[in-house]
Amino acid sequence: MSKVRRKLGVAISAYTVVIVSMIFFILPMVWIIYCSFRTQASIFTGKVISHLNEFTLENYETILSVTDYPTYFFNSFKIALSVSLLSLICSIVGAYGLSRFRIKGKNAIIMGIFSTQMFPQVLLIIPMYLIVFSLQMLDSVIGVVLGQLILVLPFSIWMLKGYFDNIPVAIDDSARIDGCNVLQRLYYVILPLGAPGIMVAGFFSFVVSWGDYLIVSIISQSQRTATATLVIQRLSSALLIRWGQVAAAAVLTIVPTIILFSFVQKRLVEGLTAGAVKE
Amino acid sequence: MCKKKWILIGLSAVLFISGPFGLISEGIAKKSLSFWNMPFVTQEVSPEYVIQWEKDVQTALPDFTVDNFYGPGKYKDQRDKFLLQAKSGTPDVIEGLLEDTAVYVQKGLIEPLDSYFNSWNEKGQFIESTLAPLRINGKLYGLPYNTNARAMVYRKDIFEKHGLAVPKTWDELIQTARKITELTSKKTFGFYVCTEVGGPRAAQEFISWYYQVSRRQNMFEVVNGNIKFNATVDQLEKVLTLYDELFKDATFPACDPNVRGTGWPVEDPGYVAGKWAMAPMGPWLWGRRTESSIAKDILENRTAITRLPYSSDGEPATYLEVKPIMMNAYSKDKAGAWKLIQYIVSKEKMANWLVDSGGIPARKDSTDMDVFEKAGVQWWMKGFANELPISVTMAPVNWGPVSEANLRAVNFVIYDKKTPREAAQWLYDRITELKKNNEL
Amino acid sequence: MIKGWAIGLTAVAHPVFSHFNMKLRKQQGIMLILPAILVMGLFTVYPLLEGLRMAFTNKHLLKEGVRYVGLQNFIRLLSDEIFWVSLYHSVLLTAVVVFLQFVLGLILALAMNQKLPGMSLFKSIIMASWVIPVAATVILFKFMAQPDIGLINIVIKTIGFENLNRYWLGDPNVALPFIMLLHLWRNVPFYGVAFLAAMQAIPESYYEAAEIDGANTRHKFWHITLPGIRNMVIVMVTIHVLWTFNNFDFVYLATGGGPVNATDVLPVYVYRQCWTSYTIGYGASIGTVMLLLLMIYFIVFIKISERDKIA
After folding, report:
1. Alpha carbon distance B290, B296 (integer Å)
2. Residues B330 and B293 occupy one common structural domain
């Protein structure tokens, strides 16, 4: 009897948490999606419910055809993919090295990589800009990519190291005895076993790069490299803010990360927490 | 054996990294020019005009492609970005505020245009008073495309309905504004003034009030490269007292206390939505007719323009805005950049731009074009043009930290953190300190 | 000391090495981490050192002639009101946000840990707020905070508080809590999901054994669940203290530090020093103070958690 009641109580409180969270976390997104289909006049009525004739695809049409949003969107994609790819290469290899090899000053290296996260980025960007400038990489995709790499590398390396540490060394050892060299071991042992973690690291890099504002705003100078995030920022600083268009651009910018997220969400937790869960 | 293997690995890593970027790297385009121009980004000019402009530039400059990325969306961001990266040669041409010009000149980032301008047969069309502020240390650092003086827009329908007189002095402004707030039971507040720290408009409005109490004397004077700070604590106190009175917690305050700390993004839409009856304004507001039928009605039928009310122990004065088009000193193609500037400030382009966005052309022949009459905006332009004789331009110093300090002092007062006197003293000390630290 | 940090950072046991072929392995190891070190070295370690160096100069973006000024910048800090206000806000923001994220994340995780219908769907969508760009998040909330047309004000009006209609980010009493809300909105689901993962890694047998001993729900929570997710808590809190304290874009994009100084935090103040006053040297000295504070936090926090572990 009391057990049933207790279970019911637990269920009720759990669902209360669920409902409150849905309102708090999901409703704002639903609202902005909703508003992206309304006309400026409809939004300015300050009413929640609009007449049917106030719904429109115009916002999306304008964003996609009048502004250069598609170019910027494609730039975002190009940059985020490159960042994921490069950061994966660097961090898989680096994390493997840190996880499996005894390296002089290993702790100092880890500490060094992390200390850069403790300094305000706004100060790093000036010297960073000067480096990119002297490398002649200003306003190029590779310049932006290299700049963004530093945002993702520390976390990626750390996460993957945690993940690789959980893969038993015995498997490595037996592979080595079978005559596999380092790269072969990395390829045949670590990649398949570490796949979930690697997927998550890639996803993480993509999301960070996709959402980055500071670095792009410093290195990009033209529509060759400007990204979707910059465009939202620009639209929202327009003299006459057309909220419908801002909402549409925001929705379009959110969509890719959400789609990607739906692919990895099951693995996400596993990967993010690999290092931490282990006793 | 081992070493060889590692060299191989290193090589393949290099190939792997450069592979995707080899594909990604952009093909080299034909001669390209870039132009950073805020009004094209913020839609101060309509997107339709921008599209037309882009079409026309192809015929006017057939040898070039002009990048249609017009820079970041805010003057401040644009300035920061240009300061940091002008040396890269991008953009070739930049639009800006007059305050920006002074900063760029300090840093040696823009090209004097005297030799180009003097050999241009259209130079006589430019109105001298709009060129003067762009002459720094005897050199011309930009060509003006737009000029305007601040005036006050007000709702003539409300004034007529209640039989109110249009205020001429600060005291009348405060009293009338409170009256309107009361008469409309806060549906329409009497007045609006920008108080956002870091907002350009708020800084310009502050300085308008200041020019009145200083009797049109500039806050700074640059003599032989030395900066002289002219303001006194008393003058600053007067200006700050005005802000204090406007937001004072009367039952029916002159300005809505809920919009303290906001800037033009609240001022302009608020006026055309009927939320305030008076506001300091420039001609750009005309562009908001398209926002809604209410906005159209308010601007076309219910608005009149008058002089900014002034301090009774000062004289009428207002802020003169001149917007320049400048050339990057590090541009890789200065001849091309000059052609682009000529196109931007050509007779038709300037006139059509300003018909679209509101503004007074800096060329006589543009002003004489019939497009203004056709668009029915002559009365509007004239209202602001009337103020040009009493307007003052900003001294060529680094205004950023000064404007920020000015508005901080305003915020101290309107949020009741300091009395006008204390805030004035703080402001005076702050600017003196900036000057001492050589930060102006 | 460095070892302590590293252990804390990785919070994992090191794999056991076989001693064979050790010299070769060392070389290979260095080769493996070289790409990462090169990129990080060029793009952050050098800028970091450069930043530290600038803290002792009078570098001004518009002026030529940089010279070393010793500790002058730091002395100026001591009497800089806005610096202290920003520091206070930064510490307050970080403490409140991380604490609330921890508590709310825990509650969320406990709810999600119940085997109830619909829970897996909920789990799969709840983290969406974490993946969308910060710029989009800020726009979303700015839009909702608009007077008259924003959802917040519409709701407030509907329930009869018409006079509260305002731009919420423009109210000095509300702006900072509002920024905190943005942080919570973004990160609480991440905490929830991470804690959930840690909870699910706790062997079921622990709970069964406790039940046999007659432990009630509260006991189980305090003595099994919490210690079970301890490592995860350490990791989450550590990285989020860093991220929150150094966070720039939320505040900058939402309020820029205003109204008055209500939302001034150190990273935004640094930005203003560099880009409004152009006094990069002074800005760098503030950045150096931030670095020092975070390092001290880091050492203390790791020491404490290491000590607890041993005890």
Report:
1. 7
2. no
Q: Is B438 on the interface with C (CB under 8 A)?
A: yes
* DSSP 8-state secondary structure symbol assigned to residue C44: I
Contacts of B13 in chain C (CB under 8 A): 35
Chains adjacent to A (≥3 CB pairs closer than 8 angstroms): B, C
Domain assignment of residue C179, yes or no = yes
Counted domains in chain C: 1
Instruction: Establish if B3 belongs to a structural domain.
Output: no
N residues, chain B: 440
Instruction: Check if the beta carbon of residue A220 is closer than 8 Å to that of residue A149.
Output: no
Give the distance from residue B250's alpha carbon to the nearest chain C alpha carbon, in angstroms.
16
Domain ranges for chain A, please list them: 2-54, 66-277
Residue of C nearest to A254 (CA): C132
- Strand, helix or coil for residue B149: strand
Range of the domain at C133: 2-18+74-310
Whether residue A85 and residue B265 make contact (CB cut-off 8 A), yes or no, is no
Chain C closest-CA separation from residue B437 CA (Å): 10
- Give A-chain residues touching B291 at CB under 8 angstroms: 40, 240
**DSSP string over chain A:** -HHHHHHHHHHHHHHHHHHHHIIIIIHHHHHHHHHTTB-HHHHHTT-SS--GGGB-SHHHHIIIIISSHHHHHHHHHHHHHHHHHHHHHHHHHHHHHHHHS--TTHHHHHHHHHHGGGS-HHHHHHHHHHHHHHTT-TTSHHHHHHHHHHHHHHHHHHHHHHHHHTS-HHHHHHHHHTT--HHHHIIIIIHHHHHHHHHHHHHHHHHHHHH--HHHHHH--STTT--HHHHHHHHHTSSS--HHHHHHHHHHHHHHHHHHHHHHHHHHHHHHHHHHH--
Please determine, looking at this structure, whether the domain spanning A66-277 carries the CATH number 1.10.3720.10.
yes
Asked if the structure places residue B172 within a domain, the reply is yes
Q: What is the pLDDT of residues A136-175, one digit of tens each?
A: 888 889 999 988 998 888 888 888 888 888 888 888 888 8
C-alpha span between C88 and C311 (Å, rounded): 34
What residue numbers bound the domain in which B138 lies?
32-147+321-387
* C215 contacts in chain A (CB < 8 Å): none
User: The domain that contains C128 carries what CATH number?
Assistant: 1.10.3720.10
In this structure, are B313 and B415 located in the same domain? Answer: yes
- Please give the residue of chain C at the shortest CA–CA distance from B438: C63
**The pLDDT of residue B183:** 93
- Mean pLDDT for B153-158 is 96
Q: Is there a single domain that holds both residue B273 and residue B351?
A: no
**Under a CB-based contact definition with an 8 Å cutoff, are residues A199 and A209 in contact?**
no
At A12-42, the pLDDT tens digits run 999 999 999 999 999 999 999 999 998 877 8
Question: The tokens of C283 are what?
Answer: 């800005």
The ipTM, to two decimals, is 0.84
Interchain CB distance below 8 Å, A94 and C22: no
Q: Is B196 on the interface with C (CB under 8 A)?
A: yes
Q: Which CATH number is B61's domain given?
A: 3.40.190.10
Q: Which of C28, C170, C276 sits opposite B400 (nearest CB)?
A: C276
Domain count, chain B: 2
Nearest to B85 among A68, A129, A240 (CB): A129
Q: Does C38 touch chain B (CB under 8 A)?
A: no
One domain, residues B420 and B283: yes
Answer yes or no: is B303 within a domain: yes
Q: Which token pair is C7?
A: 């252990």
Q: Structure pTM?
A: 0.81
Which residues have a Cβ under 8 Å from the Cβ of B288 and sit 6 or more positions away? Answer: A240, B268, B269, B272, B295, B299
Half-sphere exposure of A37 (CA within 13 A, CB side): 11
